[in-house]
């Protein structure tokens, strides 16, 4: 479904609510009403309800609108197989790419390759994401072969989480970047997307790591050090990474350790790749993406920032102080910045996100990725002592 069609569905849902005084109750004879109600639930950050309504619409004969909402809601709830089923038989190239993302999330590499090839045949314009991902999937015949022992690596004394790694025979520096899905290599390391034969992470080695290629010169310039790689969310999850900003280290695991209790929040793998968490901003529910490669504490989209008052300019930056809650972690008066993100951030993700949490906050926490429970866990004891100063 195009953005304009999704907006039309949302407007229809709002109109039905306004005219009837309550949310519409779809009937089995009205797939359009079910689709509109599903779009409304999605916009209200209720993916479980959106999924149920969208699947009802599909069963009633609903078209691509319902299929896209069902797929996005299924991905958000961590059910990629359900997303793949919702998009069975679609012909639109954008929906085929979404189906491929769901297949990647379901670890169906061969299915994703076939779907991306079908999307490429139908697309009128080459899609940059598909053009980068397809050769990476083809090259990683048996991806993510993990060998060796657990590793604890020091974070360099830099404003972002950076570690020393070995890409095949090349020693370089890598940023831990949850805003990326696959690994990213600078053209100075590899000039085309594909797969790293062996990624060395201390005592731990990962074979056949899919990667895309993008210039990392902006990161290098910002940090004053040559950055050759970004280690994305997919690998960090597979290694059950524990990023300990206060202690200046990251722990990586050859096999995920048992899940542990503690302060945490469920991970929302929006669009199958973007990591997000449910949060509250001054008490209002919100979805926030995670970006450990962002220097900011919290960056808001224009649609989220326009709803807030109390903005002030400090050193050329517009900010407002917000109380933020993520799971049981409560952060008082966290600086939130506007102007760094545009509404294209939400459009690219395909979800109504309000902003992104960056290293300015996350670096004050111990954050542990728990792939078995599909959660991120926080230890904020150091943060609670040091406060929210970014």
Mean pLDDT: 88
Strand order of the largest sheet: 3-4-8-5-7-6
Under CATH at level 1, the class of the largest domain stands as: Mainly Alpha
CATH architecture of the largest domain: Alpha Horseshoe
CATH topology of the largest domain: Serine Threonine Protein Phosphatase 5, Tetratricopeptide repeat
The share of residues in helices is 25-40%
Query: Can you tell me the number of structural domains?
Result: 3
Can you say what the CATH homologous superfamily of the largest domain is?
Tetratricopeptide repeat domain
E-strand count: 20
Strand content range: 25-35%
How does the helix and strand content classify structurally? alpha+beta
Main features:
Cathepsin D, subunit A, domain 1, disordered N terminus, Serine Threonine Protein Phosphatase 5, Tetratricopeptide repeat, disordered C terminus, 390 residues, 35% helix, 14 helices, globular, single chain, alpha+beta, six-stranded mixed barrel
How is this structure best described in words?
The chain is α+β, with helices and mostly antiparallel strands and 390 residues long. The chain folds into three domains: 3-125, Alpha Horseshoe (Serine Threonine Protein Phosphatase 5, Tetratricopeptide repeat); 145-252, Beta Barrel (Cathepsin D, subunit A, domain 1); 264-386, Beta Barrel (Cathepsin D, subunit A, domain 1). 35% of the residues lie in helices and 30% in strands. The protein is built from 14 helices and 20 strands. It has helices at 3-20, 31-43, 47-59, 64-76, 80-86, 93-105, 109-122, 128-139, 217-223, 233-238, 302-305, 344-349, 359-362, 381-386, and strands at 145-148, 151-154, 162-167, 170-176, 183-185, 194-201, 204-213, 227-231, 242-244, 249-252, 264-270, 274-281, 284-291, 298-300, 312-314, 317-326, 329-338, 355-358, 366-370, 375-379. The strands form two sheets. Strands 3-4-8-5-7-6 form a six-stranded mixed β-barrel. It is globular. The model is unreliable at 1-28 and 385-390 (pLDDT under 50).
């Amino acid at each position: 479904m195009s953005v304009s069609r999704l907006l039309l569905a949302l407007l229809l849902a709002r109109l039905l609510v306004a005219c009837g005084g309550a949310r519409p109750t779809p009937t089995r004879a009205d797939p359009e009403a079910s689709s509109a109600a599903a779009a409304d639930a999605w916009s209200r950050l209720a993916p479980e309800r959106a999924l149920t309504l969208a699947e009802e619409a599909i069963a009633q004969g609903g078209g691509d609108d319902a299929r896209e909402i069902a797929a996005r809601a299924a991905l958000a709830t961590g059910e990629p197989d359900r997303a793949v089923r919702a998009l069975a038989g679609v012909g639109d190239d954008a929906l085929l790419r979404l189906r491929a993302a769901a297949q990647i999330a379901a670890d169906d590499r061969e299915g994703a390759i076939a779907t991306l090839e079908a999307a490429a045949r139908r697309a009128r314009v080459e899609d940059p994401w598909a053009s980068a991902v397809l050769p990476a999937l083809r090259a990683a015949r048996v991806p993510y072969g993990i060998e060796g022992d657990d590793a604890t690596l020091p974070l360099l004394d830099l404003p972002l989480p950076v570690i020393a790694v070995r890409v095949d025979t090349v020693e370089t520096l890598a940023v831990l970047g949850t805003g990326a899905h696959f690994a990213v290599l600078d053209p100075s390391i590899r000039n085309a997307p594909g797969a790293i034969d062996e990624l060395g992470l201390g005592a731990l080695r990962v074979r056949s790591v899919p990667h895309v290629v993008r210039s990392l010169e902006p990161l290098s310039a910002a940090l004053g050090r040559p950055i050759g790689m970004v280690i994305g969310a997919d690998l960090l999850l597979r290694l059950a990474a524990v990023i300990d900003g206060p202690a200046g280290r990251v722990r990586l695991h050859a096999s995920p350790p048992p899940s542990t209790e503690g302060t945490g929040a469920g991970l929302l793998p929006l669009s199958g790749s973007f990591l997000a968490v449910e949060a509250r901003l001054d008490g209002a529910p919100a979805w926030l993406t995670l970006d450990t490669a962002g220097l900011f504490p919290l960056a808001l989209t224009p649609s989220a920032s326009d709803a807030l008052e109390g903005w002030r300019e400090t050193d050329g930056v517009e900010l407002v102080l917000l109380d933020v809650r993520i799971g049981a972690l409560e952060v008082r008066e966290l600086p939130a910045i506007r102007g760094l993100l545009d509404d294209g951030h939400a459009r690219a993700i395909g979800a109504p996100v309000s902003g992104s949490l960056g290293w300015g906050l996350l670096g004050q926490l111990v954050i542990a990725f728990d792939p078995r429970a599909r959660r991120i866990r926080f230890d904020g004891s150091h943060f609670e002592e040091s406060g929210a100063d970014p």
